[in-house]
Amino acid sequence: MSIDLSQFFDVFFEESFEGLDAMESELLSLEPGKEDQETINTIFRAAHSIKGGSGTFGFTAVSDFTHVLETLLDQIRNGERQLTAEHVNLLLKAVDCLRAMLTALQAQQEPEQEEANELKLRFEAILNGDNASSSQAEEVSEPGESSSLPITFQIDFKPLPYLFKTGNEPLFMIAELAELGELETQVLHDELPKFKQLNPEDCYLYWRFFLTTTRGESAIREIFEWVEDDAEITIVQCGGLFEEPASEPSESDTQHPPGEPESQADSSALTKPVQEIKKESPQVKDARKNADPSTTSIRVGIDKVDSLINMVGELVITQAMLSQIGEQEITESSIAALQEGLAQLAHNTRDLQENVMRIRMLPISFVFSRFPRLVRDISQKLNKQVELKLIGEQTELDKTVMEKLSDPMVHLVRNSLDHGLETPEQRIAQGKDPVGTVTLNAFHQGGNIVIEIMDDGKGLDTEKIRNKAVQNGLIQEMDELTVDEINELIFMPGFSTADNVSEISGRGVGMDVVRKNIQALNGSVEVSSEAGVGSTFTIRLPLTLAILDGQLVQVADHTYIIPLISIVESLQIDIAKVSNVGKGLQVLRLRDEYIPILRLYDIFNHRGAREELDKTLLVVVENDNYKVGILVDDLLAQQQVVIKSLEANYQRVDGISGATILGDGTVSLIIDISGLIKLSGLRRPGSSELLVDLKADEAVTA
Amino acid sequence: MTEHTKLNQQLVLDTESDEKQFLTFMMDQEEYGIDILAVQEIRGWEPVTVIPNSPSYVKGAMNLRGTIVPIIDLRQRFGITHIDYGPLTVVIVVSVKLKEQTKLMGIVVDAVSDVYSISEEKAKDVPDFQDSENAQFVHGLVNVGEKMVVLLNLKKVLDLHDKSSVKSSGG
């Protein structure tokens, strides 16, 4: 029973998350005033099915919450309410909130209610607001009210001294308020002057009310309608933290001294969301961590499945043909037929393999789709105008790669927005279009997928990076570095040029983490930049983590596999170009570079390998723009290998990224280049220190 | 031998609720037993692929129908003198749950011996060999007829992250 239910849960969560994604992307495409009926319908349908599903599974918190936004959407859909930018913002927040709730539920945790309740209040405030164009709207919104708790408002009412002269009587208003719901009244009399100075015609008292009502804010506002200009009125919803209430009355501004109302309002609006985000994020992260073990699934297009079935059909036919040949007596003609059959079998298997791999492939739009929202939010916060261009959204890559790609990409895009793009004023001053452009471009190149993140901002500030690196002791004051080498420095641990630590980027988790994450996927990340024109980050990744092109190499009687993607060249060593640089390290001068020689047999403790340099081969590999030569006895075949986990039944082995099974059924281990370099004891502090060392030593030996 | 089988039958017939079946194997004239439910299959010895920088008792990795399975030489694990592998040398593939993860591993032993049903209650505690590192591998001792069988604690035997293999654990 419980197993069955949890199966349905998985489907429900998956569909809900998909629905939320759809809602989000549709909401972003909405432009208030020009909304498209179909778009609204899509959003409505997504909300509706989430509500239905969550109701079925007893997630009442989710269904109640969804009900409110569904009501609003329904009114908009029926044309009873005009869509505003505020609605869109609120709906987007609701999507986030729902996502957090569902993530928590998926991890079998109690979802955080606070935010949901607060958003619900705001939705209800809108629903009850007088901007609904007909009384019908009221009816529609009623179920929303009945299912919701009454809201408590804090109302500060401070009449100006001449209130009585305008013919208004606060007592009547208080009586009217009491009619709306439960009213608690506080009279504040600290401004009451001494009796001698008291002018009986002036009003010195002011009030604070706590009104618990199911009616919206507009109803309260109506009561004070006549005194709006003669009093300071602030109406705030109570209970829970809230962001600046959407309908914060403009009158509240009068509280601020006239000199600085702008800035104060600004800062409070800015700091509040920040605090909230900080408060929430650990929880969301926790939930995500816990959700991890739940089985993930892929939705596969029916065409992919169909073509698989076709392939398997062909495979069965080939197999039947082969077994028929096997039953016959072996003649020359049957041998020819056998060979033909085997060729066909090889062909079928390859096709099948490719198609099975394709099942794991998803268009990169799954990652790209989250960026419009991200860019919108961040650019609003930064007051920058940004246009996001997405190119090559249909480029496919492996699902596992995609999942791990998302975080580094978010980081890079944030960086581009925060550090790369200038403010509109700066851009205009430089004769650029005030609207900056961030382009995400994905395409296939060889067996790799390449993703470019381009901005047309100010580019990397090499001078600043250099100074910072000197400051952090990464480079020496007088080191001469090329522009590329300087740009490379941003990938060093603990490096951030941000002057101020902001919420968007520059929290110390820097580009080094991005690079590490990408490297964990056997990929690389590079940057190129031109001052004033913009910068481009290029991520290169293998299409899949399941198969790689490998070069088989032999060391003594062991066969290892070096990923072909990392191999630069393989060569016979010219002993004249080898220098000893102490501590048993040898380097080979290859054109303008010094390549450290790593003896694989030494690192892996194998006996019986060839040790003389002139009888061996050097496989030059590149990792992170850092080249090393791996000394092997011989090069064997190149082939595609299926990556198997060594860790699954054993444990992590340093210098080894996995294993595979060769054609003869034996196991062969795949070399992890960066692990190997680490294992060899070669220090590679961002390449600079080592290279400097080498150069110095070279000078001595030469 | 006949006496042995009789005894065996008697043991099998005498199925009390807490009896468990143990597969026994020989190593250096001693008989060791492991829970038969952990045994996946028994194979002849085949050369394996060496895993670099692993402890000496890890012989390497084997392809078991597409799964990579590490092979442990039990003689070396226990510090018993090494002998050359012969036609009787077998690899017993076992599955053990280590840290919430089920792992398939192979152990190399001299030869398989028998299957007994043994009540775990009859297993005696290990005599005091605190000094011996191997004591942790022993679950208990049990007499079967005239012979003594050492019941092994497979989890301990195959937990390579143990302190005895600190040197090899890199990550």
Question: What does it look like?
Answer:
The longest helix of chain A has 31 residues, at 261-291. In chain A, helix 2 (37-56) packs antiparallel against helix 3. Chain A has five domains: 2-146, Up-down Bundle (Four Helix Bundle (Hemerythrin (Met), subunit A)), CATH 1.20.120; 151-250, Alpha-Beta Plaits; 302-363; 365-542, 2-Layer Sandwich (Heat Shock Protein 90); 547-701, OB fold (Dihydrolipoamide Acetyltransferase, E2P) (Beta Barrel), CATH 2.40.50.180. By secondary structure, chain A is an alpha+beta fold. In chain A, strands 14-18-19-17-16-15 form a six-stranded mixed sheet. In chain A, strands 6-8-9-11-10 form a five-stranded mixed sheet. The N and C termini of chain A lie far apart (78 Å). Chain B is 13% helix and 44% strand. Chain B has three helices and ten strands, in the order αβββββαβββββα. Chain B has helices at 2-13, 74-78, 154-158; strands at residues 19-27, 30-35, 39-44, 58-64, 67-73, 90-98, 101-109, 111-119, 138-144, 147-152. The longest helix of chain B is centred in the N-terminal third of the chain and has 12 residues, at 2-13. By secondary structure, chain B is mainly β. In chain B, the strands form two sheets. Chain B has a five-stranded mixed sheet with strand order 8-1-2-10-9. In chain B, a hairpin with a 2-residue loop joins strand 9 and strand 10 (147-152). Classes of the chains: A alpha+beta (702), B mainly beta (171). The A-B interface holds A 558-559, 603-606, 644-646, 648-656, 659, 661, 665-669, 679 and B 47-54, 58, 60-63, 66-70, 103-105, 160-161, 169-171. Chain B: Its main location: cytoplasm. Chain B: It comes from Pseudoalteromonas rubra.
Brief synopsis:
The complex is a heterodimer of chains A (702) and B (171). By secondary structure, chain A is α+β, with helices and mostly antiparallel strands.
Work out the count of structural domains of chain A.
Answer: 5
Task: Count up the helices of chain B.
Answer: 3
DSSP summary, beta strand count of chain B: 10
Quick one: CATH superfamily of the largest domain in chain A? Histidine kinase-like ATPase, C-terminal domain
Strands in their spatial order, largest beta sheet of chain A: 14-18-19-17-16-15
| Beta fraction of chain A | 15-25%
Largest sheet of chain B: 5 strands, mixed
Query: So, CATH architecture of chain B?
Result: Beta Barrel
Percentage of β-strand residues of chain B: 35-45%
Q: Average pLDDT of chain A, to the nearest integer?
A: 76
Function (chain A): Involved in the transmission of sensory signals from the chemoreceptors to the flagellar motors. CheA is autophosphorylated; it can transfer its phosphate group to either CheB or CheY.
Domain Histidine kinase (chain A): 303-545
Domain HPt (chain A): 1-105
InterPro entries (chain A): Bact_Chemotaxis_CheA, CheA-like_dim, CheA-like_homodim_sf, CheW-like_dom_sf, CheW-lke_dom, HATPase_C_sf, HATPase_dom, His_kinase_dom
